[in-house]
Automatic annotation (TrEMBL):
Residues spanning the membrane: 181-199, 231-251, 272-293, 326-346
Domain Ferric oxidoreductase: 229-361
Lineage of the species this protein comes from: Eukaryota, Metazoa, Chordata, Craniata, Vertebrata
GO biological process: copper ion import; iron ion transport
Domain Pyrroline-5-carboxylate reductase catalytic N-terminal: 1-86
Name of the gene this protein is made from: Steap3
Essential cofactor(s): FAD; heme b
Protein name: STEA3 Metalloreductase
Length: 362
């Protein structure tokens, strides 16, 4: 059974029907909501829906849980699956699932399906996150909900007892928790190198020679900064591994815990490496766009005019030609190798490699 008539309740009903379950939907206005649900789902009043189902998905907001208190007698012995989320992390002292359990002590409450979006339910597990996190104090109830999730095409993950509900409810509200430190690190490095290159390429020529080179800021200065950030970030990927090895050699054991700063550093290596690849890819794109600039075309024309005035047949400098050819070739190879590292960091690719293969590539 499904209690609620919102977007998530409708998507849940659609997925349950497609998975072969008999679905009954409880609504306060069944006649008005009936056309929103699949024809195979029975839409009726909440009391009737509760009587006809043993497992009930509570797809309503926490603030409306109290409206179900009139159904306490018919809910006795039922399995209530709380699918709700909060609007803020740790918004309440107790989780929504624990609050629901306190209102209906005669029921068995299971927390689950809150990390699955309505879109994933409608489109199927192939186009979204396949994991369904489940927790409850009742093992039999967890097993029942896990079996339903499996039939629906999802992968149930047992998160333990009901005390884990707060952690599960916080998961959808987090914004890239593992990326905060690497992003701030990348921004800090970018600002440092950008300031240095700005002084060197724009401010210094203006002070010494009075040349206005502000036009270099959007492309040239940024393009000079990106590779600097990239190779420093890449070095920060492998440096903590060296420090960890030195620490183990110094203490003569691999079982001693690393310092917290080194432990955090090791855990963020993947994100730092991907940001390094991102900066390198941007550098490649910026470099390809250099000849498209109007300033570059003017410089070519000025060089040609100067060559004609000086009556020079060629301005070929062998050393500069070889230097640029090698520079571009090595850069392409480096970007290719960095792309390989980035691809193998994807979970789907990394899981297909054994430890020796992964270590060889890394």
């Amino acid at each position: 059974g499904v209690l609620g008539s919102g977007d998530f309740a409708r998507s849940l009903a659609v997925r349950l029907v497609c998975s072969g379950f008999k679905v009954v939907v409880g609504s306060r206005n069944p006649k008005r909501k009936a056309n929103l649900f699949p024809a195979a789902a029975e839409v009726t009043f909440q009391a009737e829906a509760v009587k006809k189902a043993d497992v009930i998905f509570v797809a309503i907001f926490r603030e409306h849980y109290s409206t179900l208190c009139d159904l306490a007698d018919v809910l006795v012995g039922k399995i209530l699956v709380d699918v709700s989320n909060n609007t803020e992390i740790n918004h309440h002292k107790e989780s929504n699932a624990e609050y629901l359990a306190s209102l209906f002590p005669a029921c068995t409450v299971v927390k689950g399906f809150n990390v699955v979006s309505a879109w994933t339910l409608q489109s199927g597990a192939r186009d979204g996150n396949k994991q369904v996190l489940i927790c409850s104090n009742n093992q039999e109830a967890k097993r029942t909900v896990a079996e339903i999730a499996q039939v629906m095409g999802f992968t149930p993950v047992d998160m333990g007892c009901m005390s884990s509900a707060s952690e599960i409810e916080n998961i959808p509200l987090r914004l890239l928790p593992a990326w905060k430190i690497p992003i701030f690190l990348a921004l800090g490095l970018f600002l440092c190198f950008f300031t240095y290159n700005l002084i060197r390429q724009v401010i210094h020529p203006y002070i010494r020679e009075g040349k206005n080179k502000l036009y270099k800021i959007p492309i040239e200065v940024v393009n000079t900064t990106l590779p600097c950030v990239s190779y420093v970030m890449l070095s920060l990927v492998y440096l903590p591994g060296v420090l960890a090895a030195c620490s183990q050699l110094y203490y003569g054991t691999k079982y001693r815990r690393f310092p917290d700063w080194l432990d955090q550093w090791l855990q963020h290596r993947k994100q730092i490496g991907l940001l390094s690849f991102f900066c390198a890819a941007l550098h490649a794109v910026y470099s390809l766009c250099l000849p498209m600039r109007r300033s570059h075309r003017y410089l070519l024309i000025e060089t040609a005019v100067k060559q004609a005035v000086e009556k020079k047949m060629t301005i070929w400098v062998e050393e500069e030609v070889w230097r640029m050819e090698i520079y571009i070739s090595v850069g392409i190879i480096a970007l290719g190798l960095l792309s390989l590292l980035a691809i193998t960091s994807l979970p789907s690719i990394a899981n297909s490699l054994n430890w020796r293969e992964f270590s060889f590539i890394q």
